[in-house]
Structures are given as C-alpha cells and as structure tokens.
C-alpha cells in the first residue's frame, strides 16, 4: 500500500486546520487600535497552536518520509491523530476567548495529550510494520522526546488546577522542545555508513541513534 | 485519462469536509465545564461523521489505487459521491444541535444512503471500464458489504420513525462494519499467484475474492 | 516551467470553493421538516454551483493535461479564472437566500460570464504558447462551446431583467451543455493514427501534430 | 530532505488562505443592488489580497522549483512566511470593513512587511544551503525587488499616519511591481550557456542575473 495519498491527505487536513484557526479571530467592527486589544489572548493562543500544528506537520513529514510502506492499522492511527488535531481550532478559540482560564487550558492540554498519544500509536504501528531492526525503527529510537512530552502535558493539566498559566507555560515549553525539527530521520544513509550494513544488524541491541 | 488529479481533487475535498465540520462546534463564550455540556451531542455527531468520511477516504484510496484508468462517466460518478459527502457537515450539525431527534436522524441517514449509492455507481463504472474479468473487478467482487450497508441505511431511516436512536444505532453499526479498511484491493499480486495468470481467466465464473 | 504545481494549486482552490459553499447553508435551529423549507432555494443554488465548479474542474483537468508547458501569462490567466470562481460561493448564497430574484441572478450570471472569459483567455494563452498547429491547439479547436456559453450568459443576464427565472433557466441550460466532459483532449493519439506519423512529417504544411 | 511535501503543504495553505478570504464578504440579506454597496471596500480589499497571495504563490513556486534541497531551518522559515500570510484574511476584512481607515491600513501594511521579511529569510536560508555561487543563488541575485518592497511597506505604513489612502496606494504600487512573475528562476539553463560553466565561476563578482 502506497503512502503517497496518506501524506497528501494529511497535508491537506493539516493545512486546513492551521488556516481555519484564523477564522476564530473575529474581525472587530471598529477601526481603533483599542478594538484589537481583546484579540490579544486569542492571537497568543493562535500563535501557540500554529506552532504546534507546524511541529506536527514537520515531524509527520519526516516520519512518513522514512517509512517504506503503510497498512490499514497505520491509516487508522493516522486518522486518529488527525481527529485530535482537528479539535485544536476549537480548544484554541475557547482558551483564547476566555483569557487562559482553568478549564479551557486543561482541555487544550488534553487535546495535545491525545494528539501525542495518537502520534505515539502511529509511530509504534510503523515500527511494528517495518520491524524492530529496520532503519526506520533505529532512526525513531526510543522516542524519549515523545514520552517526555506526554508526561509534561499531564503535568501541565495537573498544574492548571493550581494556576492555568502554569499549564500554559508548560505547553509553551513542550513546543520549545520540539521546535527544532526531528533530525532522527534526516540522515539515514550516513548513519549506515558509520554503523555498517542495514540488514542483519541484530547484535546492536542498544539502538545508537535514539 | 490519468487518475492522479481525480485522486488529488477527491483528497482535497474530503480533507476539507472532514475539517470544516469542526467549525459547526460553536465555541462557548463562558469558560465553565458546564458550558461544554450542550456541545456533547454535537461532538458525538462529529465523531461519527469523522469516522464516516475517514472510511470513505480509506476505501476511495484503495479502490482508485487498484484502478488502472478513468473516463468521463467515472469523473461524474466521483463528483456525485463528493456532492453527497459535502452535505455531511450540514446534516451532522443539524443532527447534533437537535440531540438526535427524528427528522435530523432521517436526513443524516438519507445523505449516507445517497453517498453509498454514489459509491456503488462509481465502483460499477470502474468495473465496466476495466472489464468483468479484470483484476480490478475480481478484487471488488460482488460488493456484499456495500449492498448490506445500503439495506441498513434504509432500515435505519425506517426505524427512526419509531425512535431516532434506533436509526442512529444502525448508522453506528454500519460504520463498525466498514471500520476495518477494505482489504480486497490490498494484495492483488498474491491473489494472482494463487489463482493463476490474470488475463483470459474466463472459466472462473464464481469470482473467488468477493 | 512545470505545470504540476499550477494543477495542484488550482485543484486545491477548486476543492475549497466547492466545499465552503455548503457553509452558506445555515443549519436551522429547530428539528422539524418545515425548518428545512427555507433552505430549498439555497440548496438548488448550491447544486447548480457545485455542477459548475465540477465542470470547470473537469475541463481544467483535461486542458492542463493536454498542455505541455506553461508561462507567466498562463499563471496569471489561471489566477484570474480562480478569482472569478472564488466569488461563486458569494453569489450562490446571495441568489439562494433571495429566492432567485433579479439582481442576484444577474450578478450570478456576470460572475459566470467573467469566469468563462477568463477560461477563454487561459485557453488562448495556452494556444499561443503551444503554437496554432500544435496538437494542443487542434484538440481545443475553435472552442464553439466556450463562445456559445458566453453568448448564453449575456442572454441570461439580459433576460433576467424581464424575469430572473429566464436567466436562471439559461444558466442551467449552459451547465447541461457542458455536463458531458470535454472530450476534445481525450484521444490525441487516435488523431495521430488518422493523420499519419508524428515525427518528420515536414511536407504537410498544414501541420497536424506540431 | 525532499522539497515535495513542503511545496504541497504551502500550496494547500495558500489555496485555503486565498479562498477563505471570500467568506469575510458577508452575504447581504436583501436583494437590491444598493445592498451590495457597503461591500465595495471589502471587495477592493479582497482583490488586493487575492493578488498578493497570488504573487506569493507565483514567486514561491518559482523559488522552490529552482531549489535543489531544503533543511530544517528552511521548513521553519517557510512556516513563518505561511504564518504571516495566514493573517492576511483577518487584516483584509478589518481594512475593508472600516473603509481603509488609518489603523487597519497600517496593520495591513505591517502584515505585508512581516511576510516580506519572512520571504527574505526563506530566500536567504535557501541561498546559504545552496552556496553563494550555486545556480540557485545566482538566479536569485541581489534581490533588489524584495528589498525595495520592504522599504515601500515601511513608507506606506509611515504615510498612513498622514492619510491611509497614501499607504494603500503604496501597497497597490508594490503589488504592481511584483505583478510580473519572477523570471529570475525561469531560464537557468540558457543563462549557463551564455555565462559559461556553473561551478567555480568565482571571478564574476557582479552577479549578472540579478
């Protein structure tokens, strides 16, 4: 099964998500600079979500580029990821309009958490399909960043009960961690040159590229 | 005539349909957890439609992947399918906002039925173009699942007059039947290995892969 | 200059236009069958525009498929076409909401006319680039259907001053004329079979394939 | 790293931006010609933004076509460009609804300025990656037009404090400068034929193709 249309469909959905979010920034009916002031939290919320969708697109791009093939389970894991990301415009607007108050920040974090879990499932399914010793799986490694992100989201959700800005701060932090594109999938060839031939490399149990 | 742009255009339309549906979930203006409560039926309605559009994309993906070529009639059958699917956001919102009451559930079922009929016409046109004994047609088989789905939609529409949740339950059931991606088109090569050469296989009237 | 991204961008814009039109069908807040009644003219308006955008996509698909290359002027002619088509959702909603009254029907026709003129300019630019005796230009032919359509739009606009349904009827008629996909670009190879070999055919001054 | 998905994603986002802008033209509820009158400034604003997004798509198309490869920094520079362009529908609607008054025109100019700076960063990153003497960089040249545009935007913003139509006029002027597609990337091969071999061409300090 070819991955081309999965990439194209995901690109389409992510492109639409990242763009329709801006429709939630309602155009003020007066022309003063002050009329923009109520939009500042909506705008901040939009910027964070834009970065998150951008990060997902970047990492999805890299991961699927490294993938050799896909199967039915991967199609559904991908749809699950797109489902949770499709809720980002809703929680972005709710969080922005309510000036980062408790429940909106918690819900925002929960959607991020569910998206991260879906991405983890997608990566896990790709690893299973390609085999543990495949170039793909060795490039993905033990996915520390993915696991840490999930912990941070949980922490952010919990801390939001104390003060929602703590939660929001943690979401910004996680975005910062991921800001640098995922280089694990960037140079598979060079890695092979260093580590020897690709197949039958079973003695290297400690994956060196994680 | 190449099928590439038909796939690209369909991907685009399906990606937009699946994404703009979320715009019907109106962001509440207060920040309490209770303010989300009225959205629960809209959300459930959204989830079901997301799954349906996902299923259509999956099956469309597989069917067009197996197709060798398209013609004008297929372009229009595809447009007819996209037309009915384009109405999904509307009926999804109407059904969700009205808490699965009778007429919205019936209309939702009718749009699903029309989409299923359009998909059937599309598959039928593809079969005609490729020939009854083609790999494509043998992979598609007698399309039991498609025919059963249509019967179920009709039953769901009828049962909605007794109680709309019966109809809704049947739509969920049909989604469950289709949840597993259509594997008929997945391994055409292996099928050939088992069943002998592709062309001139006229003695096998009972298509073995349906 | 490659035509791939022009096709992809046009597909994207057309897919969005055809899909966002449905957002103009405002979901009624009550669940009776009667509550759908005011939407009937909006729906009819939507169906006609869906068919028109579908026709444009089909013909654009065929024409660009036959094109060998594009240049800057063609990029802008294509953008001009997309501009007028981008106004279709607006005039569709205005015409539907106002039950096909005079000015909305006239404006609808004017947008169709401008789109047709833009398409003509696009086709003309492609003919100039490929040469009058090219396979592309011979496939396009004298473009009777395009010229007749423009005349019909003008007639429809004029007749709308007498009664808007006359104008609307003519727009439906033109859609009927174009419903069958443009076959001119479908079978270039067979034309060559009739007219002799492709290369080195220098003695035929009326160049059939150049 | 392949540039294909970056192009596809950018095409998608630009196609959506250019299309959803039309949603800001609210359909009037009456059918008189006069009811369209308040939309005239919104329409003018829409036309200018349509042209700007079209210009960005054209130039992005050409620049990425000439690029051989991309890296992580380029992905982010591209996302930054898309971010600022995603704000165009918002500022377009604000400027149109308020009849080109001071602050909306200033904000519109600032978004154009930020987009131009992002494009400059994107071009700069591509130059760095390909090397100063690469065909790409020599085709891009000294990017006079890009630098002049930024100066003009700054001037337009400043002049808007005197009268906003001065600023608006300058934005129209800049669009006019860019209207002709960027031909620098169009004929790299012919340029080589004239100017000699591509690599090691260090004596030509004054880049001849800028």
Please characterize this protein's 3D structure.
By secondary structure, chain A is mainly alpha-helical. Chain A contains nine helices and no strands. Chain A has helices at 4-20, 40-66, 72-86, 88-97, 102-130, 135-140, 144-160, 164-179, 188-195. In chain A, α7 (144-160) runs antiparallel to α8 (164-179). Chain A is globular and about 60 Å long. The two termini of chain A are 27 Å apart. Residues 188-210 of chain A have low confidence and may be disordered.
Please name the defining characteristics of this protein.
0% strand, globular, 9 helices, homotetramer, 210 residues
Helix content of chain A: 55-70%
The residue ranges of chain A in which pLDDT falls below 50 over 5 or more consecutive positions are 188-210
Assembly state (oligomeric): homotetramer
Interface with most residues? A-B, 33 and 34 residues
Question: How many distinct beta strands of chain A?
Answer: 0
pLDDT averaged residue by residue of chain A: 84
Cα shape of chain A: globular
- Give the strand content of chain A: under 5%
Number of helices of chain A: 9
- Helix/strand-derived category of chain A reads mainly alpha
Rounded radius of gyration of chain A (Å): 19 Å
H/E element sequence of chain A: HHHHHHHHH
């Amino acid at each position: 099964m070819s991955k081309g249309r999965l990439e194209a469909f995901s690109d389409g959905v992510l492109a639409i998500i990242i763009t329709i979010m801006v429709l939630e920034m309602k155009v003020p009916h007066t022309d003063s600079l002050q009329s923009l002031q109520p939009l500042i939290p909506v705008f901040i919320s939009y910027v964070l979500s834009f970065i998150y969708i951008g990060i997902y697109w970047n990492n999805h791009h890299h991961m699927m580029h490294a993938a050799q093939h896909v199967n039915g389970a991967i199609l559904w894991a991908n749809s699950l990821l797109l489902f949770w990301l499709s809720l980002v415009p809703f929680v972005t607007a709710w969080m922005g309009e309510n000036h980062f108050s408790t429940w909106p920040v918690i819900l925002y974090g929960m959607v991020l958490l569910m998206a991260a879990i879906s991405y983890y499932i997608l990566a896990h399914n790709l690893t299973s399909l390609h085999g543990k010793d495949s170039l793909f799986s060795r490039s993905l490694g033990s996915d520390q960043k993915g696991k840490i992100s999930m912990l941070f989201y949980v922490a952010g959700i919990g801390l939001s009960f104390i003060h929602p800005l703590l939660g929001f701060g943690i979401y910004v932090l996680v975005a910062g961690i991921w800001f640098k594109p995922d280089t694990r999938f960037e140079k598979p060839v060079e890695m092979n040159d260093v580590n020897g031939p690709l197949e039958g490399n079973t003695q290297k149990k400690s994956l060196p590229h994680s």
